[in-house]
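pls read this stuff:
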Amino acid sequence: MLLTSTNTIEGHKIRHYLGLVTGDTIIGANLVKDFFASITDIVGGRSGAYEKVLKEAKSLAEAEMVNKALSMGANAVIGIDFDYEVLGRGSMLMVSMTGTAVIYDEFAKKEA
């Protein structure tokens, strides 16, 4: 499955636009992560615990979106956009992905 944030696939023709696909996830960070993140906020630096949670949320949202595209018969999702939102008092993270499921010609180059 080809995934791209662009609206075209360079060198290839899109044969069919199948429709919008989404993937959403809401994931929580626990109190231990919150505690260490607050220390990081005070002394500076990156919060590895929250980065790990963010990567997991993105991966789950992407997998859901890809599964929906596959069920429609797509071989690519174009125009992908991520959206992030912190919910509650910062202990929940929502990640949404949207894109357009398409079928593109994998082997024939687009004629100039």
About this structure: The mean pLDDT is 83. Residues 2-105 form a domain with the Translation Initiation Factor IF3 fold (CATH 3.30.110.70).
